Structure formats: C-alpha cells, structure tokens
Amino acid sequence: MFEPIIIHKEDKIISVDLAKKLSSYEIKASDKIPPPEVALKIGNAIIGTLGNILSIIGKAKGRKSFFIAMAVSVSVSKDNIFNLFKNELPNNQNNVLYFDTEQGKYHVQMALKRICKLTGNREPNNLHVYGLRALNPNERLELVEYAIYNTPNLGIVFIDGIKDLITSINDEEQATMIVSKLMKWSEEKNILITTVLHQNKGDSNARGHIGTELNNKAETVLSVTKSTDNEMVSIVKPEM
To answer: Which strands sit side by side in the sheet containing 45-49, from one edge to the other?
Structure first.
C-alpha cells in the first residue's frame, strides 16, 4: 500500500503561491498582446525591438565599437545617422545607457565624443555613459542591474562587452545566468539590450558558452568584419 501523503501547512502555502505565480504567466489565445515596439532600424530592416536582445559580434579590432557608436548616436537622437540608422523609440523611452567594460576612461571619453559629433550635440542629456574597466565582474553586474532598474524613461542599454560581467565565457552556469538576466531585464523594463561579444579567432562563431546562449536567445545577431578588399571598410551582416 502507498503511504498517505501529508501536506504540512507550510507546504500548502508554498503550493498556493506557486499556483498563483504559474497562473500569472499563462498565455491564452484570447489575450490581447500587442507586437513589440520597434527601437532601431537599418534602412527598412528592424534590428531591435523593445523587450528583446540585440547581439553584436566580430573579431578583435573589427570596428565593432565604431558600429556601436553609430547605434548609440541614433538612439539618443531622432535624426537618422548617415541616412541609414533609424531611431523609432517611443518619446517616453528616450534615455540610453552605455556601459564600456574594456577601455580606460580616456578611450571611453573618445567614444563619447565621437557620439556627440555624430549627433551634433555636445552633451546629450539622455545618454549616460559608464566606464567599468576598473571593477570586477560581480561589481560590474551589480551596477548594470542597478542602473537598468533606476533609470527613468529607459529605452536602450548598450553593454560593450558582455563577457566582462562574468568570470568565464566557457562556464555554462554563468552563461545561462547572465543571458537569463538579459532576458529578465529586457522584458520587465520593456527595453532593448544590445551586447557586444568577440568572435572566435579560428572561425566566425561568437566566443564561448555565452556566445551560444546569446545566439539562441537574441532577437537579432549582427556581425561586424573588416572587408578583405578594403581595410578602411567594415561590413555589417545579419547572422541571425
């Protein structure tokens, strides 16, 4: 015979709480769920929507940061950049966060000045730039999360580069953790999160387990590579 199942008072409370939580995530065919709002476009192509992740990958020194500068510039300005990039953020979500985890303060400021030049604005008041190179991964992660939840009217977050929010790009648990946070932040705050990650030296794949996770979870993956025909030209290509 089976032993009788005894449900303790604490277990009953837990099961009720879980039932409520599960119910809050149920999606029905009759629900009125609008499509995600467009955040960024290149030409007529949508590259990022609110509530999602955009992943930028490329080789070292492939001008990923210059591409990001253009993307940040159009994100803080309603003007098209080079008649190509288009900002379609809602007016009540015009604040932009830009985190640089790799460069020193001088070079982060150079990137900021490039953005100011592209926008024609000496100091955009809706752009907040942070250089996090001096911190350890846990400190960077803590500050990024704090800023995301405490910046009003937030529309887009740029993280260059995402690998510096964890200690190992090949640790499956850490990769799952950081990408899960990106999905949580983007959905709960209804923002576009743009990440930057290197490609492997030997192939065009994004580096490590974190690269695999981002490929699986990002709405769009764009690669930035130097042209083999002209060193002065970089090619932006949709990988996924």
So the answer is: 45-49, 38-42, 85-87
Say what the pTM is. Answer: 0.89
Q: Which backbone phi and psi does 64 adopt, to 5 degrees?
A: -60, -40
Among the listed residues 126, 110, 121, the one whose alpha carbon sits nearest the alpha carbon of residue 81: 121
CA distances, 138 to each of 23, 58, 113, 142 (Å): 33, 25, 28, 6
Calpha distance 23→13 (Å, rounded): 15
Q: Going from the first residue of the chain to its last (240 residues), give the mean pLDDT of each consecutive group of 10, the final group possibly shorter.
A: 55 77 92 94 92 91 83 86 84 96 94 91 93 97 98 97 93 95 97 91 79 93 88 86
Q: How far is the first Cα of the chain from the last one, in angstroms, to the nearest whole number?
A: 56
Distances (CA, A) of 222 to 124, 214, 215: 26, 12, 10
* Geometric angle at alpha carbon 206, from 205 and 208, rounded to 5°: 110
Phi, psi of 36 (to 5 degrees): -65, 145
d(CA 33, CA 198): 35
DSSP secondary structure of 41-95: EETTEEEEETTSEEEEEE-TTSSHHHHHHHHHHHHH-SSPBTTTEEE---TT--E
